[in-house]
Amino acid sequence: MNLATLGRRVGLALAAPAMATAFAFSLAALVLIVSGSDPLVAFGEMLENGTRLETMVDTLNRATPLFLSGIAAAIGFRMNLFNIGVEGQYLMAAFFAAAAGGAVDLPPVLHVGLILVVAVTVGATYSGIAGVLKVTRGVNEVISTIMLNGIAVAGLLPFLVRALADDSGSANVPGTTEISESGRMPSLNGVVEIFTREIGKGRELSSVLLIAAAVGVLYHVFISRTRFGFDLRASGINPFAARVGGVPPQRMVLIAMLLSGAAAGLVGMFEVLSDKFKYDQSFVQGLGFGGIAVALLGRNHPIGIAIGAVLFGFLDASSGVLQVSGSASREIVVIIQGVILLAAVVAYEVVSRFREREEARMAALALQATPTTSNAGGAA
Amino acid sequence: MMERWNAWPSWARWMSITAVGVFILATVQLVGSDTEQLTSVTTAQAMLRWCVPILLAGLGGLFAERAGVVNIGLEGMMILGTWFGAYGAFNFGPWWGIAFGLFGGALGGLIHAIATVSFGVDHIVSGVAINILFGPGGATRYLSDQIFSTYEGGAITQSPRVDRVGSFTMPFLAGGNIGSWESPDLLGWLDDQGWFYISDIAGLTKGLMAQISLFTLLALALVPISGWVLWRTRFGLRLRIAGEDPVAGETLGVNIYRHKYAGVIISGALAGLAGAFIVIELTGIYREGQTNGRGFIGLAALIFGNYRPGGILAGSLLFAYPDGISLRDLDGSATHALLAVIAVVLTGVFIFSLVRQKRTDAAIALAFALGAAIWYGVTDEAPTWLPNIMPFVFVLLVLVFNSQRLRMPKASGMVYRKGET
Question: Are A354 and A15 in contact (CB under 8 A)?
């Protein structure tokens, strides 16, 4: 492949998300104008605020769970599975991990390790239900994971939180016992401050970021560089062909579902290990769907997912400053996120159709250029 | 035996299933005797009211699915319906609220149609995007902030209170008025007699006929109307061919794109109606997050009902039943009795599966039946969260036992492009 085609390919790959983001911001500008705010002031504030060190830390902290959630969704997507249930899986995992972490006292590393193991196990178990139902009973995973989300969010979790609530603290919201010092992940502020000024406002860069990065690398190596990842993608693209090639699709479905749930289990770890140190009724929700959005934006590629997560994290982090300055309603960022997602999936479709046509045209040109040896079809 | 059963018309099948179901409820009530709520008038009324949003969302799913488009954006479209319904009802009166809700949902449907039909975006992806965009904290909160916050009694997450539409009681059977004359209340009298089974049926039936909102009647009327439109009109035939075999339809000169658009927009409109119903009839106010996953339960009713209007009605009544019970059930005794009902039903499934030599099915049913029975035996009251998860659990159980028999439209979920096979 020469440099020109490479440039072309990269350009085409970036065209869709760039177009989508631009479209989303223009639409948001329109909405802001209609509702009487000045979009330039609002976006200016977002940008100015976003380049501050503290906001960057905030952005990264918010991007970390989104990235993990995106990876969880992407593992499913690579196998042609829609794990809509990341939402329920991470909430269940976070609850049990926080409850386990709060109940015991272990030496530092072990304590964190236990919490992580519980989270991963619970996440995988919960997604495993959908996997088993699909493999043994042919139940569509979209439906079963939606139902499992409903069971977790509408029934089990509110009940479990109240049942295990720790009344000893002065907290107004019922939640699990706070995890002691040994079960917390350290802050990375010290490392960052070597290169920058001191981070103010009490912001701490969570080291869960490193876990997320490790998961991202593992995901990439696993999917693109191992035989197993190849089998997974193959049975996602064409389960019948893969089966002929000796890959049992049923087993692949189950494994993909379990891995996806395991990754989902880590989504809540930022809050559990370095922010709130417990699971309570105000535990952050919606990261599961955010992860699906980020995975779609990043086209299931770890770097793409990371960019998407940082973009969404930045938007989340900006909502506060808009509220404080009053230049626009903070909900505009959710509108931007939703529109970016919708516009991006549409744009990807448009670009891939364009590419298809382009390739067909190039192929036709190439055919014309080569002198044909036979005269069949050469009648002009 | 199965052939003869399948040869029955579907209304007869649903009627006999209901008759058996009520018999089980009546028996459990008689034997367990910790509650009378299982077959009371108020339970039936509450069930009917809570069934309507599920029913409308399910019918919405039906139109999209029959046109070959999976719509998991129902929840988001329903939320649009709640917002627009509240806006219309507050400013122009409840009937306008219904119209506005319909319009709001249709708008969501239009977005879904543009993405999935014109641009060929994956249906699930587009649905998820719509749910994020219009879900809690999203575009509707922005709208509330801009508009409801400026009203007296409104706030960023809620609207001022809105009025209901009128209601109707059946004369003679449930004691409704004709003019100013109060007609006899036959079913109410039967319900008061305390006769086993007969009074139970009378109680439930009266609940379905007394003080029914006109909006509920409208929703119930949409069940046969949907069936008629989809199976008895030219438009319905063309819409269904878009969902079964679009390429074949194309060769017959059917404009597949247009019919898919129509199906998805109608789908959104019905989901919007469901949202408007929640605001106008159930809560009397728009409050963020009030749909609480009912769009998804509507989707579940659609699958439970095997993609048919009558089945969707049955499914939504079933899914609304735990809601109906729990509203008046402060001590949890009625929900507790429901555990016994579940145990009995699953035992039935167990025996049925044994007869049909399906050993795995039998084992699963037995395990769940025993679980429910033990739970019933060792506790005195059921936790309050149990009714909340019941619809979801019902769907999973139905899919576990019945997923082979369900038949979705053949081309549903597939991306169709004109001129491609």
Answer: no
* B121 with A346: Cβ contact below 8 A: yes
Nearest to A119 by CA among A266, A272, A283: A266
Return all residues near B167 (Cβ < 8 A) that are at least 6 apart. B211, B212, B213, B214
**What percentage of chain A carries pLDDT values higher than 70?**
95
Q: SS3 for A286?
A: coil
Alpha-carbon distance of B313 to B295, in angstroms, equals 15
Residue among A144, A151, A153 minimizing CB distance to B399: A144
pLDDT digit string, tens, across residues B361-395? 888 888 888 988 888 888 777 777 788 888 888 88
ipTM computed for the complex:
0.84
| B395/A147 touch (CB, cutoff 8 Å), yes or no | yes
- End-to-end C-alpha distance for chain A, whole angstroms: 34
Neighbours of A365 (CB within 10 A): 9
Gap between the Cα atoms of A241 and A249, Å rounded: 10
Q: What is the pTM of this model?
A: 0.88
A248 CB contacts (<8 Å, ≥6 apart)? none
Q: Are B388 and A329 in contact (CB < 8 Å)? A: no
What are B320's two structure tokens? 């609304």
**Sequence-distant (≥ 6) Cβ neighbours of residue B149 within 8 angstroms:** B155, B156
CA angle in degrees (0–180, nearest 5) for B180-B185-B191: 155
Q: pLDDT for A299-315, tens place per residue?
A: 899 999 999 999 999 99
* Burial environment of residue A368 by CB neighbours within 10 A (0 to 12, 13 to 18, 19 or more): exposed
The answer to whether B392 contacts A342, with C-beta atoms less than 8 Å apart, is: no
Contacts of B296 in chain A (CB under 8 A): 146-147, 149-150
Looking at per-residue pLDDT, the higher value among A258 and A18 belongs to: A258
Give the helix ranges, DSSP H, for B288-332. Answer: 294-304, 309-327
Q: How far is CA B39 from CA A44, B12, B15, B44, B198, in A?
A: 62, 21, 16, 7, 11
